[in-house]
Design goal:
- The complex is a heterodimer.
- Chain A starts with a strand and ends with a strand.
- By secondary structure, chain A is mostly beta strands.
- Chain A is 0% helix and 54% strand.
- The relative contact order of chain B is 0.33.
- Chain B is mainly beta.
- Classes of the chains: A mainly beta, B mainly beta.
Chain lengths: 113, 115
């Protein structure tokens, strides 16, 4: 079983809808949680970064972390066709562990005009 | 451009050849990471450097792989005697760890195809 599980999708939504993405994980040492967006054949682009549990909002994006359930979510409001991409969750333990990231497999999202 | 840069962007090679990739991190970022990503999967950690010191290597990094960061700035990743299974995107990321901070910024990657 992988340390970080993510539904591969694809997730298809109409333009303007809310996109809901999530990941589950098994390693209770993870403290830092990130969401990356990756367009085809490009490097991952950092979208959201959260430390420990709680919510964080940035424009159309909201990230939630529930450490008690080992579950993280990303919501994209008012989705646009340009949001069509693969979304990767990533997480790491503390600085002493090297900050190396463990990724989920990514969810493909398609926003239809 | 002050982001992470990687060269070359694409590399096609024949099985058995050696290849070398370069990563230039964001200046002032003292930690540099290498990851490998195969099609349809998330990136997997290979190794990382703090300044010029290589602090950890994944079990994915076989003895055919070697990474260096000689002056604590750019890094190179060399694969010797390439195999078809080495075909992947090789990603570099950098960070300046601060208390509570771990935002890793990735380069565009080097896509390797081994024929």
């Amino acid at each position: 079983q992988k340390e970080v599980e993510q539904d591969p999708g694809p997730l298809s939504v109409p333009e303007g809808a809310i996109v809901s993405l999530n990941c589950t994980y098994s390693n209770s040492a993870f403290q830092y949680f990130m969401w990356y967006r990756q367009y085809s054949r490009k490097g991952p682009e950092l979208l959201m970064y959260t430390y420990s549990s709680g919510n964080k909002e940035d424009g159309r994006f909201t990230a939630q972390v529930d450490k008690s359930s080992k579950y993280i979510s990303l919501f994209i409001r008012d989705s646009q066709p340009s949001d069509s991409a693969t979304y990767l969750c990533a997480m790491s333990a503390d600085k002493a562990a090297g900050n190396k990231l463990t990724f989920g497999g990514g969810t493909r999202v398609l926003v239809k005009p | 451009d002050t982001g992470v840069s990687q060269n070359p962007r694409h590399k096609i090679t024949k099985r058995g050849q050696n290849v070398t990739f370069r990563c230039d991190p964001i200046s002032e970022h003292n930690r540099l990471y290498w990851y490998r990503q195969t099609l349809g999967q998330g990136p997997e950690f290979l190794t990382y450097f703090q300044n010029e010191a290589q602090l950890e290597k994944s079990r994915l990094l076989s003895d055919r792989f070697s990474a260096e960061r000689p002056k604590g700035s750019f890094s190179t990743l060399e694969i010797q005697r390439t195999e078809q299974g080495d075909s992947a995107m090789y990603l570099c990321a950098s960070i300046r760890p601060t208390r509570g901070g771990n935002e890793q910024f990735f380069g565009p990657g080097t896509r390797l195809t081994v024929l």
